[in-house]
Amino acid sequence: MLIKRSPNGIDLPFPSEITPRAVFESRRDFIRQLALGSIAGSALLEMANREAFAQTIGAAKLVAKPNPTYAVMEKKTAYKDATSYNNFYEFGTDKADPAMTAGSLRTSPWSISIEGEVKKPMRLDLDSLMKLAPLEERIYRLRCVEGWSMVIPWVGYSLSQLIKKVEPTGNARYIEFVTLDDKKQMPGLRSPVLEWPYVEGLRMDEANHPLSLLTFGMYGEVLPNQNGAPVRMILPWKYGFKSAKSIVKIRFVKEQPRTAWNLAAPNEYGFYSNVNPNVDHPRWSQATERRIGEDGLLARKRKTLMFNGYSEVASLYAGMDLKKFF
Ligand code: MTE
Fold first, then answer.
1. What is the pLDDT of residues 97-149, one digit of tens each?
2. What is the residue extent of each domain of the chain?
3. Does the domain spanning 60-317 belong to CATH 3.30.750.24?
4. Distance from the CA of 53 to the center of ligand 1, in angstroms?
């Protein structure tokens, strides 16, 4: 196995070289159950323990110092839920599809091209990109436009750190994120459900807001493929679809980018897509949300908060009619 040195000095195998946690957990459980069922008990138990050991040394740790300024004090979503209930249409439209099919994504080698209105365009391999700034752990709420939310410890650094390095020109008013577009690795691209590649965008001041997180990991490990490995955005005050996964290109542009969901249904998904309980989706209310993991008949719905509770972004939109610019 190829071992790389992470920015924290921790030995870091590439994400693609590691058995996904869900796969090894179910394999281990299976072996344990067999063993406890007393068929050739001791040999199987030993096998289960060996599996556990192999995974301990194989897990792709990406531990970063927690940043208390950005830590939501709410119960974290279980890792299992956050990695098995996903939206990643390049791997299918069902929530369970990405965890099952994203194993075909090759995350090494990976590079990301920074282009457009910048004085220093560059192509960076993943390792160089990760070393550009110290990694932090931030616990963010993420609210999907479909009406559910999660609380996840992400690992990354503020996108502004990268923006500073490439020196945007005076023409750079927006920033565009482009996801990998490779049918061989992403079976969902054969379906015309969206215009591919998946593109998202931000205004420059939004991109420069310290909350905008260029993200490489979650729960102290590198991102699993289904969560957007090896690098994605996390924008906690916006609906989840603004947070593009598996990014290969970041472009600095003059005009507002044409984004995947806005192109697919412009009356339903605006460019801004700030979490806003006062602006309903044309087909459902946005006033409340279901926290993943709090299911069941008696589970209460939570009130959705303006900007998903991140009121510090409000000044970015001062004077804007947020019903018009939804
Ligand atoms: N990025 C790409 N490339 N393709 C997608 O389908 N789905 C978006 C966003 N990023 C999506 C994407 C949506 S709708 C959501 S809610 C979040 O990813 C889900 O992230 P998660 O699966 O890590 O919870």
1. 999 999 999 999 999 999 999 999 999 999 999 999 999 999 999 999 999 99
2. 60-317
3. no
4. 32
